[in-house]
Design brief:
By secondary structure, this protein is of the alpha+beta class. The protein contains 16 helices and 14 strands. Bound molecules: acetyl coenzyme *A. Acetyl coenzyme *A binds next to β13, α8 and α9. It holds the Pfam family Hat1_N.
Length: 489
């Protein structure tokens, strides 16, 4: 029976086409990353030999088509039958994808609107990569032209984003506006292959929606009303909101050329320019998106941190000269918390993401020879702690304490279920994993940014306020088990 089974990811070919001299020509072909939403968890198709499911998209307007071919098909034996391919594909593709191939090819070759096609919405950013021109356009999902394109593109979400789900595009207009589905697509402007062809070709797209930010003035009594929602005088799209990136996709043929970064920074720039948006968030980012976002946010924030002299104070509240280590992590004396709050608010970066970028930056300010990556003697540091002779060793000590403080606060419930010794060990392992993840990102950024890690750190502003709580104490500096490698913690 195995002979009749094949890997669904291999069988599915996604092809981007343009009109050619006599019939459509292929611009790029690639396989999906996931087919489990369509063909089940095993991602296997039963009952075909030499199966090819070709999913074509017109390069400019994504007109879709699916074509199935195979050498042989399993003849049913009892209840055992070949996978119903059309039945599996139909819920994921627009009806228009199921016309016959000659009809589709004719539509591509003779598309009289192609020449004048421009992506719906507004041009937000033209840019160039390796001498080729690209553009990012943005439009509201309430625009029917945007809806049409999104409906055609959405199958790609199931095929490339784990647990990604298509958006509902037939919601009432006020919902579509609320999601302000801030929709960004990136198009490559290519020389048209025929006089009537479009010069646009898709590279990727992203959607983002406005998440209403509840800000109640607690001095006012709460007015409970039973009026219809939304009230007619309220424009949902103008209420204070977080912008949340929901789907984000660059086609495999264009990976690692900076398009994802252009798309992300364009969305981020639009947030900064929009007074109604308070911060940018991301829905369930995966590891590669996190890598992209970390590098992009770091490039954005690093110059600001340097300009504002952000660094760790190696001697908070004179701790170095005292015998007793402070009982709590003296956050306000270690880092300029007011300045950082201001930077975070003006760059509209979500709190945990900001903490990651800040930790990464503060780590980079400790010369590498004083960090784990440079082989620093951690055992000795854990004995000397805040009294280490070298200011950079103390800076690194306090970096670990600050990072542990955040991790402890975030995972307090989980950690408090553990015995003290296990808790300490777990936290220590976690901070180590976080540090390793930061070192990977800092390494990836080396070519893009000037290396500032060996610079003399500025002394802190010496604020004295204390903050409650923190990591247990850290005679416990033996830390903890895992909360995962390269964890987003
Ligand atoms: C909210 C969500 O939708 S989460 C889901 C995100 N989307 C997907 O996973 C769909 C499939 N994948 C993709 O669409 C793309 O791989 C993306 C969007 C994740 C990345 O897009 P790209 O255009 O390749 O990113 P870009 O070229 O701008 O990369 C910028 C940096 O991010 C990091 N990066 C990007 N992709 C990866 C990866 N797969 N692994 C590790 N690091 C990565 C690298 O540091 C890279 O810089 P470098 O190439 O100089 O090393």
């Amino acid at each position: 029976m195995d002979d009749w089974s094949c890997d669904a990811n291999d069988a599915l070919h996604i092809t981007v086409v343009q009109p050619g001299d006599t019939k459509p020509k292929t611009l790029s072909t690639f396989h999906p990353q996931f087919t489990y939403p369509i063909f089940g968890d095993e991602e296997q198709i039963f009952g075909y030999k030499g199966l090819i499911i070709r999913l074509r998209f017109a390069a400019h307007d994504l007109r879709p088509h699916v074509h199935i071919s195979y050498d042989d098909r399993f003849k049913a034996v009892g209840d055992t039958t070949a996978t119903d391919l059309l039945g599996a594909l139909k819920p994921f593709l627009p009806q228009e994808a199921f016309i016959n191939l000659p009809e589709y090819e004719k539509a591509i070759q003779e598309d009289i609107d192609a020449k004048t096609f421009t992506p719906p919405g507004k041009l937000v950013l033209p840019y160039e990569v390796d001498g080729r021109q690209y553009e990012i356009w943005a439009g509201s999902l309430a625009d029917p032209a945007v809806q049409k394109l999104l409906n055609r593109a959405q199958v790609l979400i199931s095929l490339f984003i784990e647990a990604g789900t298509p958006l509902e595009t037939d919601d009432p207009e006020w919902v579509l506006e609320r999601w302000t589905v801030y929709f960004v697509r990136s198009y490559e402007k290519v020389a048209p292959p025929t006089p009537t062809a479009s010069s646009y070709s898709i590279v990727g797209y992203a959607t983002a929606y406005r998440y209403w930010l509840y800000q109640r003035d607690r001095s006012e009594p709460s007015p409970v009303k039973n009026d219809p929602f939304p009230p007619s005088e309220v424009k949902i799209a103008q209420l204070p909101a977080r912008l949340r990136i929901a789907q984000f996709l660059i086609l495999p043929s264009h990976h690692r050329s900076g398009h994802g970064t252009h798309l992300y920074t364009t969305i981020h720039a639009s947030c900064i320019a929009d007074d109604t948006i308070v911060e940018l968030t991301v829905e369930d980012p995966n590891e590669s998106f996190d890598a992209l976002r970390d590098t992009a946010d770091y490039c954005l924030l690093q110059p600001e941190f340097l300009k504002r002299g952000v660094n760790l104070n190696p001697d908070p509240n004179g701790a170095y000269s005292r015998k007793q280590r402070p009982k709590t992590v003296p956050t306000n004396a270690l880092i300029p918390t007011d300045t950082l709050r201001e930077i975070r608010a003006s760059f509209k970066i979500e709190a945990t993401q900001f903490a990651h970028i800040l930790e990464m930056f503060l780590l980079s300010q400790v010369p590498e020879s004083h960090r784990l990556a440079g082989g620093t003697n951690l055992a000795r540091l854990l004995i000397k702690k805040h009294k280490a002779d070298d200011a950079n060793d103390r800076r690194y000590y306090w970096w670990r304490m600050l990072t542990k403080q955040r991790l402890y606060k975030k995972h307090r419930e989980l950690l408090n279920e553990l015995e003290l010794i296990d808790r300490v060990e777990k936290l220590d392992d976690t901070v180590r994993n976080v540090e390793e993840g930061y070192e990977i990102t800092l390494g990836a950024l080396k070519d893009r940014l000037p290396d500032v890690s060996e610079e003399t750190p500025a002394e802190s502003s010496g604020r004295r306020d204390k903050r409650k709580l923190v990591v247990e104490d850290e005679d416990d500096e033996e830390n903890e088990a895992e909360l995962v490698k390269r964890p987003k913690v």
